[in-house]
């Protein structure tokens, strides 16, 4: 018997195919280094989020192994049962000390931290206001939570002001993941200070911006009410935390289901994240190197069609058309570069792009070669 699920699945996949939007999972060796291997080819990787080059850092691997020696393998339970160890407590203290918050609540991923916050805090009759380009985890939770959700035009503070007709939870990313631009946090906070809460998801700003890599909020001299930080990007590992005040921390520990009913992250991972934070804070040379690469990128790319000037290691090249971009990405792979084509629905219709990301482990020469290859690929395809 054919159930409605069968046709639903087949139709949806076929539609994606027709639109040129099919995604595929590819098995990659060493996707966390500047050179990766795929199908026996070595390609320079400009698509990771490993901004500070810590994901394959050998010293950090040794720290993680030490964490396993100290704490064993899995956490064995959710945090409220027996899964919360000294390693988790140390990580929370280290985050609070670094980022200047009273509490840190740990999660297995940034996706679950964002959803846990919106689902546990918001009730019917509340107003949730989000930047239009916020991450899918925030948008999806906003659609399914009982609050009324409104979206303001990307980084448009005047539009936000018009929408903010009553107390609300205002949510923005610090650095936007697909555009690499920075939210006008200081201006947003002026609107939220008295009657609303400001929540910033700083997945892509942490480690990269601000003093000791404290992120977008430090960079903008803003302290939001809620800060979500993730460990899978500049920190080179995985997991996330919600940074907040004592009262909200107590509340989340009672009501954030993704925290309460999910196995705590392995204690060895919590230990490794704590060590990674130490490196991010003191190894300024990683941010200096990124800045150097960014200057080179600007020199080499600013005359290209689709170039966008950003202050972060996320560098979009906007093309708009879903088909051309796949051809360009394939042509670049032939020339030894891995650059993922980013297409709708990840980004808005008509704004398909190549998303170049720089990491502290790239070389100036690699950036120069990429620029030359993109120019040739664009001439061939466009
Ligand atoms: C802005 C933003 N928030 C949250 C997440 C989710 O974080 P995680 O990968 O830890 O689930 C991502 C991941 O891509 C992101 O870009």
From TrEMBL:
EC numbers: 2.3.1.47
Family annotation (SUPFAM superfamilies): PLP-dependent transferases
Pathway per the UniProt entry: Cofactor biosynthesis; biotin biosynthesis
CC cofactor: pyridoxal 5'-phosphate
Domain Aminotransferase class I/classII large: 42-374
Record keywords, A-Z: Biotin biosynthesis, Pyridoxal phosphate, Transferase
Family, similarity comment: Belongs to the class-II pyridoxal-phosphate-dependent aminotransferase family. BioF subfamily.
Subunit structure: Homodimer.
PANTHER family referenced in this protein's UniProt entry, alphabetically: 8-AMINO-7-OXONONANOATE SYNTHASE, CLASS II AMINOTRANSFERASE/8-AMINO-7-OXONONANOATE SYNTHASE
Protein name stated in the entry: 8-amino-7-oxononanoate synthase
Organism classification: Bacteria, Pseudomonadati, Pseudomonadota, Gammaproteobacteria, Vibrionales
Gene this chain is encoded by: bioF
